[in-house]
Known about the structure:
CATH topology: TIM Barrel
Strand content: 5-15%
CATH architecture: Alpha-Beta Barrel
Mean pLDDT: 92
Distance between the termini: 28 Å
Strand order of the largest sheet: 3-4-6-7-8-9-10-11
Number of domains: 1
Amino acid sequence: MDSNRFSSFEQLAEHAGVMGVSLSSGDVSVLSRPLEVGGKVIPNRLLIQPVECGDALPDGAPGELTRRRYLRFAAGGAGLVWMEATAILPELKSHPSQLVLTSQTLGSFQRLLADMREAALARNETEPLIVVQLSHPGRSCLKAPKPASDREVWDKIRSAQGESAVSDDEIERLSAIYGDAAKLAKQAGFDGIEIKACHSFFVSELLSARGRPGRYGGSFGNRARHLKESLAAARAEAGDMFLAVRLNIYDGIPYPDGFGMKEGGGFSFDAAEPVRLLEEIKDEFAVELVNCTSNSPNWKLFPNAYIPQEQIFSSPDDPLKNGARMHRFASVIKAAVPAMKVVATAFSHLKQYAPTVGAGMIERGEADLIGFGRQALAYPDFARDILLLRGMDREKVCLCCGGCGKLFGSGTGGGCVLRDERYKNSLKKV
């Protein structure tokens, strides 16, 4: 399904209807409305998702291309910029060029955030809020896998064969480290802190560790313990920063190994535990913002990810259906926890029709913010065009070719190989 082959939203909606997907339009002007979170104001409803590109310096400081990307994001007009996965310790990087926030890299982060705000003010007369995503990759650790459980199914997702699950004492120590990271994030000048609880990373795996013995497995309370301890540690240092989570609402891994899964229901969704978790962390730690996502990239086709153009018609999961599932996860959470500010994702495949679909979700109260990931690499000014021109230029939108992902996977950094002159022809060098 290539949205560019439709000459109007009505044609796209008709095609979607044939496939059993309902697409509704909305007034794009709602995307310009401000939104308060944690006592801070997001100037509009457009958000840049955490997009990892692997171009940090060896010590984890932002590199030249990292700076270039985030300055373009900031100047592009989005109300919130969600910085990519940032390791909480140097030994917990998932790849050599991952960002790491330490006392040694602090100055580089401070300069980047100050320059981002300056670039945004100069061009848009508003500043975006900036969130840091604090990450423990678990089984994806570069030096040695650190599994949260011993379940065989998780070894099929990200192999950690021969590695024992991290001990309860080690998990307790890890929880405290989020407090240290939060203190550095405050010094760096971030507006918010997110703890990554998705995509089979460490916190995400623990949430479904029903077979794990001890304090961090089995019951819901035990499985949620590490996330709660980490939030408590972060809250103690956060000051006026707000707290957020990027949460797998649905793991796509059958019960008992997946979170958000129906017992005995195969791949069926069950919102009970994600809703309970969000209600509890909102009440206990004043977490007001959730970025909804799902699945693991190594388990099943990502419902929220782009599908490479060459796979569009051969894929068993059409991106329209995948996107509709992601939008449903967000709307279910918003209906169940209305006080939580909810980020909906999976809009890049809609290309120039994304703003009207996202506006419709906000008008209907199904989400509060509309997130764009790889789209921002291809089209960093997408938010500015939506806000000023009430739409996106079809000649600038992400074409879902998958090139940025291939670059990142090759270890040479990441960017749009079709739209960004800096990265054109880069795949030929890989």
